[in-house]
Amino acid sequence: MEKLQLTYRSYNSVELEANHFFCIYQIDSGFLGEVFMSEQQRVAHLVGSIPLENTEIVLETVANKLGPFLKRIPDGETGKRIGWIRFLQNYLNNEHPDMETDTETPPLQWRQWDGLLLREVPMAKFKEGVNLKEVTFDTGYASSAISSYEIFSRFQSDGVIDKNTKFQVCIPTPFAPGYNFVSPPAQDDFLPIYTQHLINEIDKLTSTIPCEKLAIQWDVCQEVLMWEGYYDYERPDYKQEICSILGKIGDAVPNETELGYHLCYGSPKDEHLVQPTDTSNMVEMTHGIISSVSRSIQFFHLPIPKNREDDDFFKPLGKLQIPEDTELYLGLVHYEDEDGDHRRLKKAQEYVKVDGVGTECGWGRADPNRISGLLSAHANILSNT
To answer: Which of 125, 156, 187, 357 could form a disulfide with 102, with the two C-beta atoms 3.0–4.6 Å apart?
Structure first.
């Protein structure tokens, strides 16, 4: 496929000064008054999981609290997906007919940045004698999206969700289970088979859900960890392999459907698995993804740690080059840290144009009592910048 001819946007202080207009809206049944917002208003980007009871409650809650700021709404990844890929660990080790635990490979020690051992993860492999050409997977990503879209569509018809809002489907990439749950000797066989499975899932859901109503977000976490040297092994030519597969699954998304990538450092217990030194690796990965995808990319989402408000961390963003029609969202919103949210945004704007904000990661492992505060934090920073 011929590569797109891209025009890249540059950043300077003049561009960051936008024209404004009045907007009046309401959150939590409390009138917030007249709010200045730019003509190209920053958006609230929700990464994915929201630990509420079901999809209906997620969609209604999010639409009511953040409606004016949303371009897309995820279904909250309720049910088995609320723990992101945890359900795949059991599936690959115990339920898949062609796979089993690799007893010769030590479990992966899942540690957060300070060395705290969170859990040990058994690694799976293909059973002896399995015909790899006949291996299939049943993850349920397409069927879950199709079921949730029916609720989304009803809410949109009823006016609960704005007619221009897209339905966002968030899917972990092949490297998520591949690096986390599959033993290194089996990864060469696993990754291409599972990549094709996810492409098939995209085909299923885009053949049922109108493409123009959809946004697909690829969750890029284990790739970031590999880039940061987190694992006790290193894949040969991992940078090339990562960008190649991320490009392949990106190009599998129809052109009529929005495409985005969420980069992540993991947050099993509200703490990173790796504390990034600065944003340079994320900039490098973003450039690698762009060069590997033939179609347009609508957004990138990059996480910003709570304790980083310094120039050293943000400075590499000044070298970020993304197409003019690609938006940049920064995950700089943190629970009960409104002043810090504003400081992080202000510092980021010294180096890059910020089109939207969100949290660093999904909220699946967060206390459900935090949800209201997190949603309000998005509204507060977007209505006061």
So the answer is: 125
Domain borders along the chain are 20-383
Instruction: State the alpha helices, DSSP H only, in 221-309.
Output: 222-227, 238-251, 280-292
Q: Which residue in the block uniquely carries the two structure tokens 């943190």?
A: 334
The band of 7, judged by pLDDT with boundaries at 50, 70 and 90, is: low
Residue 364 has pLDDT above 90, yes or no: no
Rounded Cα distance, 207 and 342, in Å = 42
How many other C-beta atoms lie within 10 A of the C-beta of residue 61?
16
Report phi then psi at 121, rounded to 5.
-110, 120
Cα separation, 179 vs 229, whole angstroms: 12
What are the phi and psi torsion angles at 144 (to 5°)? -65, -45
With beta carbons less than 8 A apart as the criterion, state whether 292 and 243 touch. yes
DSSP-based three-state secondary structure for 235: coil
Closest by CA to 48, choosing from 85, 87, 89, 82, is 82
Other Cβ atoms closer than 10 A to 266: 23
In the 8-state DSSP scheme, what is residue 182? Answer: B
| 140: nearest Cα among 83, 197, 191, 182 | 197
Distance of CA 306 to the CA centre of its chain: 18
Strands (E), the chain: 20-27, 30-38, 43-44, 72-74, 99-101, 108-111, 117-121, 124-126, 166-172, 214-220, 258-263, 299-303, 327-331, 356-357
- pLDDT tens digits for range 107-166: 999 888 888 888 899 999 999 999 999 999 999 999 999 999 999 999 999 999 999 999
Topology of domain 20-383, CATH: TIM Barrel (3.20.20)
Strands 166-172 and 214-220: parallel
Taking the C-alpha atoms of residue 198 and residue 188, their distance in angstroms, rounded to an integer, is 16
Give the H/E segment covering residue 162: none
Whole-model pTM: value is 0.90
